[in-house]
Automatic annotation (TrEMBL):
Keywords: Glycosyltransferase, Transferase. The lineage of its organism: Bacteria, Bacillati, Actinomycetota, Actinomycetes, Micrococcales. This is Glycosyltransferase. SUPFAM superfamilies: UDP-Glycosyltransferase/glycogen phosphorylase. GO terms for molecular function: hexosyltransferase activity. One of its GO terms (cellular component) is membrane.
Length: 470
């Protein structure tokens, strides 16, 4: 089962890419995709979906503030709020009907719900969290999952430095639809082709971008994609009509992968999926009007890698593209940079990592979450934490996979009850009349996964003391 949320198109596109990749595996016999917003109440759907884009248009500063406020890892802890739980009931029912053996979440909303269901023992499926932007946002971190897939290596390094086990975090890239088999060779003898994404919600800004390209002096052709926005398509068609056949204006098209292969330069917003599709096609980008927060950070990464330029003022777009096209070799260098960081096989890598990975979930206790948040706020790594707040891992002795992340002070109850002969722990289903505390019970239930006994070893994350000599 693939769970997504239709806030923008990127999360659903990533879900569709994973669904497409499922078809190539003989061990996957049935797939179901559920948009959690589509099965929730209309009010909940409008507040989260439409409300987001109203804020993007009218109060982008608030979107940026909200992004930054929700960025600290495990900044939000505790149970899911009642309104979300109420709207999640149809999702839980769909899961119980389908009975999946694996669940892939391409949005943080279902990821948070799945963590709660894993800890309650409601589901027994391998669960993956798949992020859809280049910079990792702490909002995606949950208290229980099997595998976490991030877009780039820097995100994996940050998470493991904060204490997340390396065997649970992978840098696969963002899942995108399979590229066409026919490899298109860009014809250096023809004028460069611009692919301009006006977007379904482009409006006046998209028209301004196209208008500025009319003032360019370099030879070029352009294809402008307007999506389902017919009114925008008609406005742009009227605008470029005097330019003859230099421009081609289309609405929604199923040929986007082919257009990405044929184009020489993409002009548009740096959404996670759009940017990933461009990079996989070796298509550099001119970034315009990014949404504060995730799209700005996506753009930072592309600029850092030399695969994009950013234009912060609409009036300079034509000049900026002219400068790029006229500098000898620059477009070719940007195309090579885009190709280098592209991850066309990310969807297949996600499936491989989940289905071939550990069958027990990783559980992060609330106390451990507090330690991770504190480390992030103090700008230290997990190995710098000492004393009761230091982090320890419980590692399945049979498989070598990490099954729990907790504070060292939480080991006391477990060691009293389950101390093994070799210094490790032998976790057992607890039938004693005096029960463990609630947090420990959740921990055991998730780790045992139906087994009666689970031998684990304890690994400390604290750095060993250093001597004066080294």
């Amino acid at each position: 089962m693939i769970l997504t949320a239709g806030v923008g198109s990127g999360h659903n596109s990533a879900a569709a890419a994973v669904q497409q990749a499922c078809a190539s595996r003989a061990d996957i016999v049935e797939v179901q995709v559920v948009d959690v917003l589509q099965v929730s109440s209309a009010l909940y759907r409008d507040v989260l979906g439409k409300g987001y884009f109203v804020l993007v248009k009218e109060m982008p500063w608030l979107v940026e503030w909200a992004y930054d406020a929700s960025d600290p890892p495990f900044g939000r802890r505790g149970p899911i709020d009642p309104w979300t739980w109420m709207n999640a009931i149809p999702v839980v029912r769909a899961i119980k009907r389908f009975r999946p053996t694996a669940i892939v979440c391409t949005h943080f909303l279902p990821a948070q719900l799945m963590a709660s269901l894993l800890l309650r023992g409601v589901i027994n499926a391998r669960t993956a969290v798949v992020t859809t932007d280049y910079d990792f946002q702490g909002l995606w971190l949950t208290s229980a999952f099997h595998a976490l897939f991030v877009a780039r290596e820097e995100g994996r390094v940050v998470l493991t430095a904060l204490g997340l086990p390396a065997d649970r975090v992978s840098a696969t890239g963002i899942p995108i639809a399979a590229m066409p088999n026919d490899v298109h060779t860009r014809d250096a003898g023809k004028p460069p082709m611009l692919l301009i994404s006006a977007g379904a919600k482009g409006g006046d800004y998209a028209v301004a971008v196209v208008r500025q390209t009319l003032h360019m002096r370099s030879p070029f052709t352009a294809t402008i994609v307007c999506g389902y926005n017919d009114a925008l398509r008609r406005r742009i068609e009227a605008l470029v009509a005097p330019a003859g056949d230099r421009y081609r204006v289309v609405g929604f098209t199923a040929e986007m992968p082919q257009l990405l292969r044929r184009a020489d330069l993409f002009v548009g917003k740096p959404g996670g999926l759009s940017a990933s599709e461009c990079m996989a096609a070796g298509l550099p980008m001119v970034l315009v009007n990014p949404i504060p927060g995730q799209e700005v950070r996506n753009g930072d990464y592309l600029l850092e890698q030399g695969a994009a330029v950013r234009c912060n003022n609409t009036a300079a777009i034509g000049w900026k593209i002219d400068e790029l096209l006229r500098e000898p070799g620059r477009l070719q260098r940007m195309q090579a940079a885009a190709q280098r960081i592209g991850c066309p096989d990310a969807a297949a890598d996600v499936l491989n990592g989940l289905l071939d990975g550990p069958f027990r979930p990783l559980v992060v206790t609330r106390a451990a979450q507090k330690s991770i948040l504190a480390a992030s706020e103090r700008r230290v790594v997990a190995t710098d934490l000492t004393g009761p707040s230091a982090l320890v891992r419980l590692v399945d002795q049979a498989t070598g996979s990490t099954v729990a992340l907790l504070r060292s002070e939480e080991l006391g109850d477990l060691q009293k009850r389950y101390a093994g002969p070799d210094g490790g722990l032998e976790l057992r289903r607890d039938l004693a009349p005096v029960s463990l505390r609630w947090e420990a019970r959740r921990l055991l239930r998730a780790m045992l996964r139906g087994d009666d006994v689970l031998p684990v070893r304890v690994e400390s994350l604290s750095a060993p003391p250093r001597t004066l000599g080294g």
